Amino acid sequence: MLTESGTTRLFTSDAPLTMSNGATLGPVDVAWERYGELAPDRSNVVFICHALTGDAHAAGLREGDTKPGWWDSIIGPGKPIDTDRFHVICANLLGGCRGTTGPASVDPATGESYGLTFPEIHVADYVNVHRALMKEFGIERLAAVVGGSMGGMQALHWGLRHPEELRSIAVIAASSRLTAQNIAFSAVARAAIMRDPGFHDGRYLELGDQPSMGLSIARMMAHITYLSEEGMAEKFGRRFQEGDAKHGFGVDFAVESYLEYQGRTFLNRFDALTYLYLTRSMDYFDPFADADAAHMMAELQIPALVVSFDSDWRFDTGHSRRIVRELEQARVPVSFREISCPWGHDSFLLSDPDYHATVRAFLQGVQYV
Amino acid sequence: MLTESGTTRLFTSDAPLTMSNGATLGPVDVAWERYGELAPDRSNVVFICHALTGDAHAAGLREGDTKPGWWDSIIGPGKPIDTDRFHVICANLLGGCRGTTGPASVDPATGESYGLTFPEIHVADYVNVHRALMKEFGIERLAAVVGGSMGGMQALHWGLRHPEELRSIAVIAASSRLTAQNIAFSAVARAAIMRDPGFHDGRYLELGDQPSMGLSIARMMAHITYLSEEGMAEKFGRRFQEGDAKHGFGVDFAVESYLEYQGRTFLNRFDALTYLYLTRSMDYFDPFADADAAHMMAELQIPALVVSFDSDWRFDTGHSRRIVRELEQARVPVSFREISCPWGHDSFLLSDPDYHATVRAFLQGVQYV
């Protein structure tokens, strides 16, 4: 199903990206994948924004892989984001560690990785890089921008600030403004990473080290917030990993084994600096602080789908309701659905029938020709 | 108000404590405090069981202290646990690090701290040491055993297993069986401690080191679970610590400053090994796994007060309802109250009027003479 993949240099040292905080950055390379046929008039493009730990590999099984892309459940031939109809593009976001330039990349000015000298990233910067990629591909207007969790924040920002570049947005399990508790979880995760002696003030790559402990602790804690309490009870309960209690302080309960595995495998595919930069960008995201934020989207009557899950306690339905209120107040056409699904925040990655039917119907209704 | 405080040796190397897992331990010293007058017939004693990070200093202001004991809000002259009427005793529990023998104590067999050679502790062991202390004090029957959170587990265990030694129990914001999510949070906290290079496989005391990073991360994460999301929003919201956003990865939001402070100050008063042992004892606590657990308490018709707080998501009301169901099924007289209070699990330490009135009324009704 994968049509094409690649890495494209969008900005150079001579023609750098200007970031939200005024800093410039170049070169900027972006890793991307494309699925399905592009219509001759290029009108059938759906852009997928990924979440905190995602990457460009959203769908399909690549040669040598044992698992398909992270959103293969919803993207593919005949699936809700239907590659028989849409040309689907996903890119690793700015600051990422999966092919796109990020703090672990080499700074040409020093010959060493950026580390903490990488400029602060805002959600606007992810979107500006995605926009530059679309320009590079000659795509003037997207049929839809779709994202879950932090991906939903990007879809929302894109819709609010650049509505002329798209025809619809789908904002799933996302937030327009983190709560104190949301920030608190990320703050503890960052503290675990930065206080790890392996962090070396962000210079661990040159030193051949890694804040493995901090990053795995961050990931384990995050996984607790991705699953609902009831989902965890259903999945693990108080079961022991090996039949009987072993006692001691090692892995004994099945839920401990799950977290330990998640923490360990994360180290092979993710970078600690990326974790810092991306979580921090969410803390500061607050598009409706500008009371007039949605007026351009309203003028163009760009429809938005907003989806939440009733068991999601990372970004509970209150977060989605707030987005809906802000958009409706500005007269943006909004379709809102709270899906009943027991799997917490992770539900957006799963195949709940109501959820999938909702996304399918919304995209079928998008006027893009 | 403090009547007396001290440390008592309850077990020795020659006459050791036999623990739940069969291990023996001696000497065992216990730090305690007493408030209010003991009635001549010793019938007016209320024993207070403390929670994970508490100690024997439950009430009153000791010389040189700037803050009163951890439950001073509820214990004192004229307060719900009324020292004009009751003789109140609190002791640091077994495994603690506040005067009572624990894994940081010196093992006489080696001359070094126990570390991870300290035997596994069950809730039954805390209670057995408290019972030995009461025996030492010549107190045959308690008017009440009262505890919040892990203290409530001890009160429950004492009531179920040794109902002849008491006349009532009050089990506040507690659980009779942790959920997968509860265990998960503790598992991540323990991983942070044990993976800290300063942990040295539990031998950090001899080496003059400490797993400071892991212990502070554990504490910060725990604090998120002690406050409700709404309580955190009310207390901190998205306020910045210094008026304006500073950006970067340091403390910027007020909630970050709060967590950082909690994590840092905890290091001065708590031991990482104690954190491991005490959290693990909660994971395995499951008294009603024995279907007949409450029959002795029912036979003696020992009344139980069970209190939960509607905003508590560490041990939500479902945990308390389960305790109530189990006790009622066995025909134990139970009074259950869910208190509406926005401050999450921490509510049990605060002065909500309904909560205090409930505890006061229950203790006033206890027949102890």
From TrEMBL, chains A, B:
- Positions of the catalytic residues: S149, D312, H345
Cellular component terms per the entry's GO annotation: cytoplasm
Q: Which UniProt keywords apply?
A: Acyltransferase, Amino-acid biosynthesis, Cytoplasm, Methionine biosynthesis, Transferase
State the pathway, as annotated in the record: Amino-acid biosynthesis; L-methionine biosynthesis via de novo pathway; O-succinyl-L-homoserine from L-homoserine: step 1/1
Which GO BP terms apply? homoserine metabolic process; methionine biosynthetic process
What sequence ranges are listed for the domain AB hydrolase-1? Answer: 44-350
The principal location of this protein is cytoplasm
> Which reaction is catalysed here?
L-homoserine + succinyl-CoA = O-succinyl-L-homoserine + CoA
Where is this protein found? Cytoplasm
What GO MF terms are annotated?
Answer: homoserine O-acetyltransferase activity; homoserine O-succinyltransferase activity
Residue positions binding substrate? R219, D346
Report the top EC class in one word. transferase
Task: Give its E.C. classification number.
Answer: 2.3.1.46
Q: Site Important for acyl-CoA specificity: list residues.
A: R314
Q: Which Pfam family is one of those matched by this entry?
A: Abhydrolase_1
Function, in words: Transfers a succinyl group from succinyl-CoA to L-homoserine, forming succinyl-L-homoserine.
Which HAMAP family does this entry report, sorted A to Z? MetX_acyltransf (MF_00296)
Family designation: Belongs to the AB hydrolase superfamily. MetX family.
User: How is this protein organized at the quaternary level?
Assistant: Homodimer.
PANTHER family with a match to the protein in the record: HOMOSERINE O-ACETYLTRANSFERASE
The name under which this protein is listed is Homoserine O-succinyltransferase
User: What gene is this protein a product of?
Assistant: metXS
